[in-house]
Amino acid sequence: MDAEGLSARRRLFGYEQREFVMIRCILVAVALLLATEAQAISRFSSNRMSCASVQQRIVGEGAAIVSYTSRRGNPLYDRFVRNAQFCQVGEVTDYAYITAADTKSCPVLRCEEFESQFDSR
Fold first, then answer.
1. What is the pLDDT of residues 50-109, one digit of tens each?
2. CB-side exposure of 67: number of CA atoms within 13 Å?
3. Which helix (DSSP H) or strand (DSSP E) does residue 68 occupy?
4. What is the pTM of this model?
């Protein structure tokens, strides 16, 4: 191979390599953003908040991890959401009832796996 052909080949691979590195950097940046977003979920306790305040905070933030006391007095926590957009693929929302400062039965939405009634398993 002559010098001109070798130079053209190196340039071609150099551009491909730069593009590959750029794409890789972009993918890493996107992954980091998604990981940061997942870690940024709010955590709070419903025990000292009114039911309306708990619901309002979940709606305002989209999703939150809420600690609360069970009816038997045990500390519990779960992830509650504004709507199904905050659930994983294959999950739907269903009402859960948690304790708040002003009620023992505050309705909030939680993601649960979708189970078909017609599944023949």
1. 999 999 999 999 999 999 998 888 999 999 999 999 999 999 999 999 999 999 999 999
2. 7
3. strand 63-69
4. 0.63
